[in-house]
C-alpha cells in the first residue's frame, strides 16, 4: 500500500514538473528516475560487457589472424569497447563522487564529453566561473545533454546564480525529471519562479513541504 502511495505521489509530482517544462509526453514512469542504485546497476552491467569485449579483443589480437573477417571483427570490437567506455563515463559522471574516476577511465581516449566532465569538476572544486564557461561552451556546441541529470542541474544552478532565471528553468526542470526529490533543485526552481510566476513558486513550495 505504501509503495502505491509513493508511486502515485511521484507520478502526480512529475505531472507538475512536466507542465513546468512544457513536456507533452505526460508523466514519466517511476523506474526511469535516476538514483544511486539505478546508476550502480547500469554501470555494473556495462563494466561486465566492457570486460567481455576487451577479453575477446585480446584473444583476437593474440591469435594474429590476418583475414578480412578477423580484421573486421577486431575493428568492430574496438568500436564496441569505445562505445561502452563512453556510455560508462556518461552514466558515472552523474555523481560528483565519480568524476575523478571518469577522468581516469577516459585517459588516452578522445571523448568529447570529457569537456562537460571538466566543467563539473570545476564546479565540484568551487571554481564556479570556470565551471560556467566550460558548461556554457559545451551546451552551445552540442545544444543539449539528454539523459544527464548532473550536467543539467549544475548548469541550471549556475544560470540561476547569475540571475538568468528564465534561462535556468528548462535545465533545472529537465534535471528534476530524473531526481524529483532533489531539494537543491526545488529550492533553486522556487527562486526562479518567484520572479515572475508566483503560482508555480507556490506549487514548488507545496512539493517541498511534502518532502520535508
Describe the structure.
The chain has 212 residues and is mostly helical. It is built from ten helices and no strands. It is elongated.
Short description:
The chain has 212 residues and is mainly alpha-helical. Helix content is 75%, strand content 0%.
Low-confidence stretches: 1-33
Q: How many domains in all?
A: 2
Radius of gyration: 20 Å
Structural class: mainly alpha
Rounded mean pLDDT is 83
Shape by Cα distribution: elongated
Task: Enumerate how many helices there are, as a single number.
Answer: 10
Per DSSP E runs of 2 or more residues, the count of β-strands stands at 0
The CATH architecture classification of the largest domain is: Alpha Horseshoe
Descriptive keywords:
212 residues, mainly alpha, Serine Threonine Protein Phosphatase 5, Tetratricopeptide repeat, 2 domains, 10 helices, 75% helix, 0% strand, elongated
Secondary-structure blueprint:
Blueprint lengths: L1 H20 L14 H28 L4 H25 L6 H8 L7 H11 L3 H15 L6 H13 L3 H12 L6 H12 L3 H14 L1
Helix pairs in contact: 1-8, 2-3, 3-4, 4-5, 5-6, 6-7, 7-8, 8-9, 9-10
Amino acid at each position: 500500500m505504501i509503495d502505491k502511495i509513493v508511486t502515485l505521489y511521484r507520478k502526480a509530482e512529475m505531472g507538475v514538473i512536466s507542465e513546468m517544462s512544457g513536456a507533452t509526453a505526460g508523466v514519466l514512469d517511476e523506474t526511469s528516475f535516476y538514483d544511486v542504485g539505478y546508476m550502480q546497476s547500469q554501470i555494473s552491467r556495462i563494466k561486465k560487457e566492457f570486460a567481455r569485449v576487451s577479453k575477446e579483443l585480446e584473444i583476437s589480437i593474440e591469435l594474429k589472424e590476418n583475414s578480412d573477417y578477423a580484421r573486421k571483427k577486431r575493428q568492430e570490437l574496438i568500436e564496441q569497447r569505445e562505445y561502452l567506455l563512453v556510455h560508462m563515463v556518461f552514466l558515472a559522471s552523474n555523481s560528483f563522487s565519480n568524476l575523478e574516476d571518469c577522468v581516469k577511465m577516459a585517459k588516452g581516449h578522445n571523448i568529447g564529453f570529457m569537456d562537460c566532465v571538466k566543467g563539473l569538476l570545476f564546479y565540484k572544486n568551487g571554481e564556479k566561473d570556470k565551471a560556467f564557461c566550460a558548461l556554457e561552451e559545451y551546451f552551445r556546441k552540442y545544444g543539449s545533454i539528454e539523459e544527464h541529470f548532473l550536467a543539467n542541474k549544475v548548469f541550471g544552478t549556475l544560470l540561476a546564480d547569475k540571475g538568468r532565471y528564465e534561462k535556468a528553468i528548462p535545465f533545472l526542470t529537465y534535471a528534476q525529471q530524473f531526481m524529483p526529490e532533489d531539494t537543491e533543485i526545488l529550492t533553486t526552481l522556487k527562486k526562479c519562479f518567484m520572479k515572475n510566476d508566483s503560482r508555480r513558486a507556490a506549487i514548488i513550495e507545496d512539493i517541498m513541504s511534502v518532502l520535508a
